[in-house]
Amino acid sequence: GTQPMTDQTAPAVEVRNLSKHYGDFVALKNVNVTIAAGEYFVLLGPSGGGKTTLLRTIGGFHKPTKGEILLHGKSVGHLPPDKRPTTMVFQAYALFPHMTVTQNVGYGLKVAGLPKDQIVEKVDYALEQVGLSQFTHRKPHELSGGQQQRVQLARAIVLDRDILLLDEPLAALDAQLRKDMCLELKHLQEKVGITFIHVTHNQEEAMTVADRIALIANGDLVEFGKARDIYRAPEKSFTASFVGENNMLKGRVAEANGSSVTVDVAGSKLTVDKRGLNVTDGQEVNLSIRSECVALDRVNGTNAPADGLSILGTYDESVYLGLTTSHMARLPDGTEMVSRVISDTDDTLPEANAPVRLSWKPGDIRLHVE
Ligand code: ATP
């Protein structure tokens, strides 16, 4: 059919208490997430975390073990993939090789028995939306990978499928093309306005396209938010480690009163905002600091600075990466810390094992209890 299948005012997707087991293996544990209509939502996480399982369960290719999925407010537990308002965009472009672009896009409408003039109108509109009006007579093998993807998107548009499921859509592309296509996908989604749910393990890709990112690992939806919030203010240690480059320091709470906490780390007492978290004296906690927020300086003498915002270590080595240089130092407990700075023309470095101070600003260190 070509009528909208469901209520357009409800969230596009509501996943409630969803678990998925494969035999004894738990691929998803009690996942809850709500995705707004028109949102570009990314599932990001390490390989094997459960991203594809979640996407395919939303699309109806897997049955949930527990829990419920609502699409535009309607429970879809019983519906097969083709009766859902979703379309899966496959990495191996699932187009009919012998049909033209126009025929590929119109195929579903033809099967549904729509009159020819309506098919032409809908297909023209969809191809214009995705910028393929110039390519109507080409066959799939005469199109680039990105153009083939746009044909798939046009197919979803003509069928009024307004939730697009994309599983690693750019994985097959080389790095430069991947960057270009990323932005193109984002612009397409903004123009067409349908909901995109995009699975990737590539954080740069996720940050480029997403309105919101959900981090998934070990079957858990660990955390979600805008790219900026996930980067600047990660709640969980996992998020801090997985996104961007972070220093993760293990410590023990020495004192937790008022709005800040003092944490013992490798013989130094560090001060960190409590962020309303519940911590008690002696508790083991993690502290994260982005490597670009750490300054590394040579020091004379070995007394640990007592400002709570720095720690002493010994210089290890530096890696020049063009735009940036990573300077590495070792703390007394063996932890390595990285200070990443914009590369300087002055390339004199400390001698190996020279005492150095690693320091940061108060807002740049974060406390994590899990
Ligand atoms: P990737 O990025 O590698 O695709 P992913 O986050 O998408 O990873 P899933 O494909 O959802 O992860 O898989 C999650 C876990 O479930 C993996 O450990 C995988 O081996 C397991 N799994 C997936 N499908 C099945 C299946 N049909 N039977 C048994 N185990 C499965």
What key phrases describe this protein's structure?
single chain, 370 residues, alpha+beta, Rossmann fold, OB fold (Dihydrolipoamide Acetyltransferase, E2P), 2 domains, six-stranded mixed β-sheet, five-stranded antiparallel β-sheet, 8 helices, 20 strands, binds adenosine-5'-triphosphate
Describe what is shown at a glance.
The chain is α+β, with helices and mostly antiparallel strands. The chain has eight helices and 20 strands. The strands form four sheets. The protein has a six-stranded mixed beta sheet, with helices on both faces. A five-stranded antiparallel beta sheet has the order 13-12-11-14-20.
Would you write up a description of this structure?
The chain is of the alpha+beta class. The protein has helices at residues 51-59, 101-111, 116-129, 145-158, 175-192, 203-209, 227-232, 237-242; strands at residues 13-22, 25-35, 40-44, 66-71, 74-75, 86-89, 163-167, 195-200, 212-217, 220-225, 246-257, 260-265, 268-273, 284-290, 295-298, 310-320, 324-330, 336-342, 355-359, 365-368. It folds into two domains: 13-232, Rossmann fold (3-Layer(aba) Sandwich), CATH 3.40.50.300; 245-368, Nucleic acid-binding proteins (OB fold (Dihydrolipoamide Acetyltransferase, E2P), Beta Barrel). The strands form four sheets. The protein has a six-stranded mixed beta sheet with strand order 6-7-8-3-9-10, with helices on both faces. It is elongated. The model has no long low-confidence stretch (mean pLDDT 91). The protein binds adenosine-5'-triphosphate (ATP). Adenosine-5'-triphosphate binds at residues 22, 25, 27, 45, 47-53, 201.
